[in-house]
Amino acid sequence: MKHFTQFESKKLADSLIEKALAYKSHPRMEAAKGLGKKIGCIFLNPSLRTRASTQIAALNLGMDPIVMNMDKEGWALEMKEGAIMNKGTVEHIKDAAGVLGSYFDILAIRAFPSLTNKQEDIEDFIFNQFIKYSGVPVISLESAIRHPLQSLADMVTIHENVGQIKKPKVVLTWAPHIKAIPHAVANSFAEWAIGCGHDLTITHPEGYNLDPMFTQGAKIELDQQKALEGADFVYVKNWSAYNDYGKIVTTDNSWMLTEKHFKHAKKAKVMHCLPVRRNIEISDEILDGTRSLVQEQANNRIYAAQSVISHILG
Amino acid sequence: MKHFTQFESKKLADSLIEKALAYKSHPRMEAAKGLGKKIGCIFLNPSLRTRASTQIAALNLGMDPIVMNMDKEGWALEMKEGAIMNKGTVEHIKDAAGVLGSYFDILAIRAFPSLTNKQEDIEDFIFNQFIKYSGVPVISLESAIRHPLQSLADMVTIHENVGQIKKPKVVLTWAPHIKAIPHAVANSFAEWAIGCGHDLTITHPEGYNLDPMFTQGAKIELDQQKALEGADFVYVKNWSAYNDYGKIVTTDNSWMLTEKHFKHAKKAKVMHCLPVRRNIEISDEILDGTRSLVQEQANNRIYAAQSVISHILG
Amino acid sequence: MKHFTQFESKKLADSLIEKALAYKSHPRMEAAKGLGKKIGCIFLNPSLRTRASTQIAALNLGMDPIVMNMDKEGWALEMKEGAIMNKGTVEHIKDAAGVLGSYFDILAIRAFPSLTNKQEDIEDFIFNQFIKYSGVPVISLESAIRHPLQSLADMVTIHENVGQIKKPKVVLTWAPHIKAIPHAVANSFAEWAIGCGHDLTITHPEGYNLDPMFTQGAKIELDQQKALEGADFVYVKNWSAYNDYGKIVTTDNSWMLTEKHFKHAKKAKVMHCLPVRRNIEISDEILDGTRSLVQEQANNRIYAAQSVISHILG
Fold this sequence. Notes:
Chains A, B, C: Its EC number is 2.1.3.11. In chain A, 35% of the residues lie in helices and 14% in strands.
């Protein structure tokens, strides 16, 4: 693994999960591993959990994190090869990524999708430009189509809560939202859950299928109630349409997860990457009850990031 | 003391003042005390002095400070229990505070009042939500009604300048301003000055009384000239009306502190928490003259914060 | 050297260049030199390279950098002596600079020119207010009229690439741009190139002469093609008019540097401080070709800053 951008293999995932759990028990067990090294955390979009957890992970390894808010502190980047730069963009990604690569030992990048230019989003164009031009290891802090640090934290959380169950039934269910939301978390969760050998069912209203690239190996069941039957873990997430790209095609609020959805999944745990729109995506009773793993998932973000940074440091 | 939000006792105040002065002499005398620990500095409102001094204080103790600008880098927080989150807020305080609490050993929070919702401000609602849901020690970097780190720095400054005077006469005087300003600094100063045993007089134009909760034990004297007679320390501060909540009821500029106000208080020192509107609140002649302690107060912010963080570290 | 604001002497420049190259080979060879010391990086204007490279330089010396975005996180500063502060400014530079000086061992300040008030810009008014009132060593991160850390990095880059040439021909050429750009980089480059003993020619369209204060000792040649003949290094930069202050008087795009400009300077290297407007200031073929030193200049920003901070630490 040079960059950390997606699921690579079960073997690597297992090793990252194991290391994450070790750091969770002893966050500073390798407090000098990254001494003198710098990680540049580049945010083209806002962030709370990712911003904090990545810095903490780096600090736990003795690294110096430097945060750059490109949208606010930096400037608009030109992405087009050959562009005549006589408009709003002030620096070409080639030049900016090259410089950042010469400044930092590792770059960690957040770059959301446009949700308007499907082709560019699918190619993860902006994120890949950083990989192409920076010349250093790049960690995804959520790209147009993936959020692998979230998924690694999710796998750690499932690992901690799976108990004696050999192959847990994991359900990824669409939930309502008032905004058009990226596919990254849902894509990555599917990719990692399948890759880690879980029994994954995906459920969503008509028109909300995900990019099939990420869902090979999952059952698709459009009846939410049926999908939830016997679930051990229910991952709740909104996403906008993939076919009718970036659109909201329904907001049917019967899809909001409430206690009554768990009639046939009495022991199911509920997961969400946060931030969550309460009483739109999931009801308060679930989030404030014993099913919820959302705080643990967020906490595990630190150790997932620490495990990945440590792996890249070698 | 689990949290640092207000005056608790003269004994604790004296001990914090003493420790602050020790750190002022030897800032790095306990440079490894907080090693490996993280303090999250959460700003829901802008800050210069507080932002810098809190980070420096933490660094002097070996801690890693991480600053989060929730207003700009994060997102709008939902504060209402049971809210159906289909509007502008993107995350509930419950969830955000819970996550931050799991990330940091100590949280330091700045949350200004609305100046429109009196009840919520008086209850220090936003600030207390962080205490309620984060589960870790919380330091106030100025809440809706108090600014205790400022007041501790102010008490340190009085302590350094009081000389042989046993019970100094301290006057808190209202001053004009062009904007509606919170009550936090004035409230806290009164609370701490009284608690520390100073002889406090508060003076302000009609209509500018503070919340009586903070002024028990102070003399109230509406004639500014009379109030200033014989003062050893004069603390200048604007605040908006408390009864006619958040309103500007007069801007009478005769209340601006100038040299002629000190006819009967020849040796009085002048204090202000900064930022100060020059020639509106206080004249240049005072601020640039020998009466002024404002720079020393600002400098003492570092050691006040260091003393408090150290106390919480235990 | 107490402050670092401009070229002082060839001897000092040589020593700073030598130290920069030493740090480039061994960035952490003095990793404890600044331990426990704090540098405040104050940005009144946006920054990417400067922000990152200054922090890295400080960290390499064991210092703690604290970044303050005065424009966004802080507030508008009042600059006028005696101002009655009843308008938009919330704090006087006197008070803010005094506080920052009491908080930090070194201040590093970025303060761009107005490009409207020529007199104030020439006096480097804002920057000099920080020097006047902070009482600590101040490093320029680009002021109204100079960008000395950039120039030092440029001199390091020339030094690395000059080979056996005794007195390289260095050409500073104006290039087109769509915005009115400050003179700081061009001024400083001229000042340092002349001071370091290079053979400097400056070329620009009519109406774009620089402040003569910075160009004493340089040849001025308005025919760009003639100026470029036999050049060893070509420094490309836009600036707005100095006489018709801050205006764009031509945008003649024949001044954009392309390969055909190098007919009579076959081996010339091309320099630019970045960010560069591609295909407006310089063509892609140059920037992506072997003539370009722009990435190396940016990389050298770290070691230039480290050399200067180290010199100030003493």
